[in-house]
Design goal:
about 10% strand; MDM2; two-stranded antiparallel ribbon; SWIB/MDM2 domain-containing protein; SWIB_domain; SWIB_MDM2_dom_sf
Length: about 100
């Protein structure tokens, strides 16, 4: 008799105590963007995850991804002061915006 494969949804991760995991408050802490970054994402204090989301909205709206290599972002007049160079990879982007956020 052959068994059929079934898919099951994994339950939420649990901590060592057995309780469901809660989000880390440090990731949700509002950070104040620098003047340069504020020109793109706004000047209000927002969590890092929201900063990254707003940056991607801006990048896609202004067609700043390199068509030949989607992982590469081409800096325009607003992004160049933030990144400090003409092109960055999406992996470099997070490291470069860290210097423009203050807790």
């Amino acid at each position: 008799m052959a068994k059929t494969a079934t898919t099951t949804k994994k339950p939420a991760a649990k901590s060592a105590s057995g309780a469901a995991r809660t989000p880390n408050a440090a990731f949700m802490k509002p950070l104040t963007p620098s003047k340069e970054l504020g020109a793109v994402v706004g000047t209000a204090a927002i969590p890092r995850s929201e900063v990254v989301s707003k940056l991607w909205e801006y990048i896609k709206k202004n067609n700043l991804q390199n068509p030949a290599n989607k992982r590469e972002i081409i800096s325009d007049d607003k992004l160049k002061p933030v990144f400090g160079k003409d092109k960055v990879t999406m992996f470099e982007m997070n490291k470069l915006i860290a210097g423009h956020l203050k807790g």
